[in-house]
Amino acid sequence: MLFIDDLLIGLPAKGFVSIFKKIYEMAQAELTDESKIKEELLQLQTLFEIDQIGEEEYQKKEAVLLERLTIAREAKSDPSTGSGSS
């Protein structure tokens, strides 16, 4: 009976864990993708130039994106701190 319990409970749980790990890895990759961050900066600048957002909002979002870009570049230059599997 324990074997059946393991199959019914253990395997689906392991499947969910692997799915969540994959989602986490994909999110990390997107957050540290320099080209994606640069694209977001360009979109932000465009919104500001066509008066879709104000200067204060632009500066706040720009600061966040520039910080992400700095972190992405640091992770790229130092692979030991990058998003690898532990």
What does the model show?
The chain has three helices and no strands. It is mostly helical and 86 residues long. Residues 82-86 have low confidence and may be disordered. It folds into two domains: 1-31; 32-78.
Question: What's the arrangement of secondary structure elements?
Answer:
Layout: H1 2-31, H2 34-49, H3 55-77
Offer a few descriptive terms.
3 helices; disordered C terminus; 2 domains; mainly alpha
Instruction: Sketch the major β-sheet.
Output: none
Overall pLDDT metric: 82
The stretches of 5 or more residues where confidence is low (pLDDT under 50) are: 82-86
Shape estimate: elongated
Strand residue content? under 5%
Provide a short characterization of the protein structure:
With 86 residues, this protein is an all-alpha fold.
